[in-house]
Amino acid sequence: MKVLITGITGFAGSHLAELLLEEKVQVFGTVRPRSRMDNLSPAVQARLDMREC
Prior knowledge:
Blueprint lengths: L1 E5 L4 H12 L3 E6 L10 H5 L2 E4 L1
Parallel strand pairs: 1-2, 2-3
């Protein structure tokens, strides 16, 4: 399964991404140009396909 999460660096988006990755879902996300990646652990960031919009 593939899932797109808009606002993946936000509180809800980052937690949803972690949950889906644990379930072996392929996760894609959109972020704003100046988004901070603090909510996403480096391990999670490595498994995401993120696009700036």
